[in-house]
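Lab notebook, bench 4. The sequencing result for the construct came back, and we need a structural model before the next group meeting so we can plan mutations. Quick request posted to the team channel:

Model the 3D structure of this chain.
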Amino acid sequence: MKNRFFLLITLLSLFSCISNQNTEINAIIDSASKSLKDGHPTVAVNSLEEAIIKFPQNTEILYELY
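Done. Here's the predicted structure in token form:
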């Protein structure tokens, strides 16, 4: 019983971290898109490049950059 509880808590913590990461990535992409629409492509590219460094496994950022 204790092991199942520990496993449940661990999985919930992992899910929470992934969810927070996705929220942050979406905010970065939205900000970059807004910068691009406002005529600031350098700001958009720089923020996406910083996001790639911070989240190297996320392909959504790469797609947005290209």
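The mean pLDDT is 79.
Will bring this to the meeting.
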